[in-house]
Structure formats: structure tokens, C-alpha cells
Amino acid sequence: MEPIAAVFVCGGLSQNELYLREHADALGLPLHLPREPAAVLLGSAMLAANAAAAFGSLVDAMRAMGQVDARVAPNFNNDLCRFHNARYEIFLRMQRHQQEYRALERAAL
User: Fold this and answer.
1) Which helix (DSSP H) or strand (DSSP E) does residue 33 occupy?
2) Beta carbons of 24 and 75 less than 8 angstroms apart
3) Which of 27, 46, 60, 108, by CA, is between 20 and 30 Å from 98?
């Protein structure tokens, strides 16, 4: 499987510059914004076109029907990267702890 190279963003929050910038920074990936403002509806049309065999695959439908309008590049500031990496490590630890708590609860029942 190929590594993720970019994230395609749609919906209401795709209009929020701060949201986009923070997500690009946290993910360390560029965000691509669709040209079509109703991208969710366009996605439904892509699925329908694929179901009707109008394209060879869903990926072909996406390439033909979807267009990128703008991109938001991540900021690779070292302090910011360290901060986001630390937050991710905290998340992973919290997830492991939650699994331990659930195991304790299951054992008690």
C-alpha cells in the first residue's frame, strides 16, 4: 500500500482557514480543496457513475469528475512538529490506557 500523500477536504469546515492550516500542520500532509463547493454531492455522483459503469473504476471517476481548486501546505516548523508529535504520543498512550481500563472492567464482570 502506498503512503498517504495528501488529504482531500470537503464540507463546511473546509471554509475555515485556521482549521485547514492546523490540520495540514498536525498531519504533515498537504490538504487539497475541491473546486466544487458541494463536494459531498459530487462524491455521490461519482459513486453513481461508477455503479453505472460509466468509468473503469471509482478512482477513474474521481480523476475525471473531481478537480482540486486550492492546496494548503503543512508548516514544517521544528517546534510545531515536536508539539504535534508529542500530542500524538499522548493520544496513543491514552488509547492504550483505555484498553487496559476496559480489560479490568471485563475481568470484574
Assistant:
1) strand 31-34
2) yes
3) 27
Q: Kindly tell me if the per-residue pLDDT of 78 is higher than 90.
A: no
Q: Which residue(s) pair with 68 in the sheet? A: 34
Residue 5 vs residues 10, 62, 77, 97: alpha-carbon distances, Å: 17, 16, 19, 31
Judge whether residue 48 has pLDDT over 90.
yes
Mean pLDDT of the chain: 94
Rounded to whole angstroms, the Cα distance separating 39 from 55 reads 19
pLDDT band at 37; cut points 50, 70, 90: confident
Tell me the DSSP string of 36-67.
STTHHHHHHHHHHHHHTTSSSSHHHHHHHH--
Query: Taking phi first (over 0 means left), then psi (-120 to 50 degrees means alpha), and beta for anything else, what does residue 53 get?
Result: left
Q: Is the pLDDT of residue 27 over 90?
A: yes
Other CB atoms within 10 Å distance of the CB of residue 3: 5
